Amino acid sequence: MLASIRILAKPSAARHANRAIVYPSFGNPSEVLTAVTYPDLSSPPPKSLNVRYILSPINPADINVIENKYHSKPSPVKTLAEGTVHAFSEPHFVGGNEGLAEVIEVGKGVEGYKVGDRVVLTKQQSGTWASARTLHEDDVLKVPEEFSDVNAATITVNPPTAYNMLHSFVNLRPGDLVIQNGANSAVGQAVIQIASRRGLRTLNFVRNRNDIISLKESLHSLGADHVYTYDDLKNKETVQQIKSTITHKGASLMLNCVSGDPTKDMTRFLAEGATLVSYGAMSKQPLSLPTSLFIFRDLVCRGFWQTKWYADHSREEREDLMQTLAELKVSSCADDVDKTTDVLSNDAQQLQEPEHEILTLKGAASDQEVAQQVREIISKMQGGRYGKKALLKFE
Ligand SMILES: NC(=O)c1ccc[n+]([C@@H]2O[C@H](COP(=O)([O-])OP(=O)(O)OC[C@H]3O[C@@H](n4cnc5c(N)ncnc54)[C@H](OP(=O)(O)O)[C@@H]3O)[C@@H](O)[C@H]2O)c1
What we know:
The structure is a single chain. It contains 12 helices and 18 strands. The chain is α/β, with parallel strands linked by helices. The protein folds into 2 domains: about 200 residues, Quinone Oxidoreductase, Chain A, domain 1 (Alpha-Beta Complex), CATH 3.90.180.10; about 150 residues, 3-Layer(aba) Sandwich (Rossmann fold), CATH 3.40.50. Helix 9 links the parallel strand 13 and strand 14. The longest helix is centred in the last third of the chain and has 17 residues. The protein is globular. The structure holds NADP nicotinamide-adenine-dinucleotide phosphate (NAP). The site of NADP nicotinamide-adenine-dinucleotide phosphate has 26 residues, from helix 2, helix 4 and helix 5.
């Protein structure tokens, strides 16, 4: 257990601790997560880079990985860098799959990277909840300059998922309707923007909450056409109202990251021959659908996993997708703003950053304090209605 993790080298100066959020075994994050301070990184071996993480998101799947409920498994950290004796007596896992890092030292034989470059990870479950790591050059990719730090830190998981789901399953034309649940998730926010950019209409569902009006306003400002709550699906009049606002044809694509009963109820807005793509199961409930949907409306059910997309595509295709997302200009509330003002002289902008909160882990704080901060935020996320993407920033 964690008590057996033992620091063999003196920790670096407290102000810039070389830290990571780790777990010695799978389990509930609020019980197994802790923080450790590593010795400073050695110089990187050939073909490797030392990086400093700038921002590292906490995604729902990261929690599932720690719980051992995810398809991809992390590898335990046994060595800090190739050829370096490990600093702890027990192997352990470093949390996090996604993140933005800055190159701070370049090993021999590395081509194409220099100190100061911003990179993201191509290797799955690399352990990004850390202040610094040594990475092989093949495991990173430079990020386009256009991206803000927040967009770059969140660019490998959610926007590509949204983009691919809107392009891979149904040949959508301007005016077509896409329906989705979890519309306020980071994926959902990207779906709204990318769909709106393509002239698609979106029918969005979210959970009810105290500040539902402001949540609806913020999704409309991203380009959402209709936003309703799952509770609305229980109200016959509202259902009729929704049916009258969408075309008689219904939605040809439905995106599901929630499952459970509300998802079943949403299928009444589907067109004949529609495709339902499942990519998450936030409610932890099964997806149960009436058989009649398959018989009388020829429903097609598919799944999507961005990790598999990466495994099936080349590094160049991955770079192209990231560049496409960097160059994507999305319509938004900017369209409604007086174009004569200086503020928004263009009527299109880059993909908006997801609603987020940056959790700074202070260098001067102890490992215990830092671990407590992370456990608390994950516990809030597990409680639901957290409403923003949390990003770790190690000082
Ligand atoms: N298959 C793939 O390749 C892929 C890629 C990216 C993401 N995903 C999955 O997509 C989902 C969204 O990811 P994200 O990073 O965009 O999430 P996120 O920004 O952290 O948002 C989480 C979303 O889940 C909702 N939610 C949480 N608990 C819920 C519950 N019990 N019932 C209904 N809704 C609930 C939240 O609604 P509230 O605000 O109401 O809590 C929010 O809309 C996750 O399941 C994630 O694993 C899959």
